[in-house]
Amino acid sequence: MARVRKQNFFNTFGAVIKFVSFWIMVVIQLPIILILPRSKWSVKYMSFFMRVLLVLAGIKIRVHGKISSHRPLLVISNHISIFEIATFPVAFGGSFIAKKEMESWPLVGWVARKFGVVFIDRRPSHAVDALQQVQQTLATVSYPIFLFPEGTTTNGAYVKPFKSTLFNFVENSDVVVQPLVMNYRFRDGSPISDADMAEHFAYFNNSNQDMGPRCSRERSAFGQVFHIMMLGGFMVELTVLPPPPLAGMNRKQIAETLHKTVSDKYMELKDKHAK
């Protein structure tokens, strides 16, 4: 069984080279991103942009199943770290619904907006505007939109309850919602323990966790990218599930149904590989 690679001078030096290479790649591509219109073409370009990051970080992708060809399509998934932002566009194309705070992140927010990310303000006072924005986006794009209904990343030990307010626009609509389950493995496909997941691979705030192990040293987003480069990467396993029947359900029922579907499958796969 694989283990977390021990940190040493050579791993650290290699990660520095990769990290610097990534930023050189970003700087080189900024003019291209600048002139690209915010359209399906910029969304397609995101796939290429993110693929470079995955190669440098040593991230492998394994996909089971196919996403629906129906449009509008909302794909929902559990959320473990920032690498979902790279793996999903590479595996499936498409863009994201993200929390408003990300829009103000230096450089990241601007690039994400150019790549078709829809930022929504989840405060109750802005719920109507957020709903209209999401509905308009889903009705006009030809690619899938991804959403993380937990509203945050976790330590990977479990799936947090889904926020029902994020499904207001699904009620009585023609939007198909397809669940997706994501698991992290070592690059050889062997399981990662909950303790190693929390300490090394997940990206989360300890104060947001309800159960499971905690990280002894929380890292920034870019700090986590560097850390994964130093560890040599990992595998992201994506299991696509069939869209459940949601007709006639209200947003709370939709959230509960989707959460049970994703959580049950996630724990099944996690426990299966751990044995």
From TrEMBL:
Residues of the Phospholipid/glycerol acyltransferase domain: 73-185
Keywords for the protein's UniProt record, in alphabetical order: Acyltransferase, Membrane, Transferase, Transmembrane, Transmembrane helix
InterPro entries per UniProt: Plipid/glycerol_acylTrfase (IPR002123)
MF GO annotations: 1-acylglycerol-3-phosphate O-acyltransferase activity
Transmembrane feature ranges: 12-36, 42-61
Pathway: Lipid metabolism
CDD domains associated with the record: LPLAT_AGPAT-like
Protein name per Swiss-Prot or TrEMBL: 1-acyl-sn-glycerol-3-phosphate acyltransferase
Top-level taxonomy: Bacteria, Pseudomonadati, Pseudomonadota, Alphaproteobacteria, Candidatus Enterousia
